[in-house]
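JOB MANIFEST
job_type = single_chain_structure
chain_count = 1
residues = 125
[input]
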Amino acid sequence: MDTFDILFYHIFQYYKAQKSKKANQIATFYVSFLQCSLLLLLGVFFAKFFGKMHMDTMSSDKAWTLFVLVTIFIFFKNWMQYGGRKRKVLNAKMLKNKKLSYNIWMIWLLPVAILGLTGVFLQAF
């Protein structure tokens, strides 16, 4: 199990008690949003880094198109991955670890902090 699986499970367990029918959708959206924000952070970092090194590898329009395509792929992959069997396997593995060890507000602030860091990278370079 990787970090995204653990975060998915914690979000899923938190919202399962409150919104049982929407818990899987919320957790899948969270993991997808987190992965896309990390992708954006890396993309901005490398774009600014390559710009400072005077390397012309890809135009801005092509980079944004690639980002949108990869984002769609990430949402589809997570929808397929966490839709059924994988979630049941995660549930079985995490049954012995019933209590949530992460604060839900800190989990939701993680992608927001990553987007803030992305904004700092955009302004700094």
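[summary]
The CA atoms of residues 47 and 108 lie 27 Å apart.
The two ends are 36 Å apart (CA to CA).
exit_status = 0
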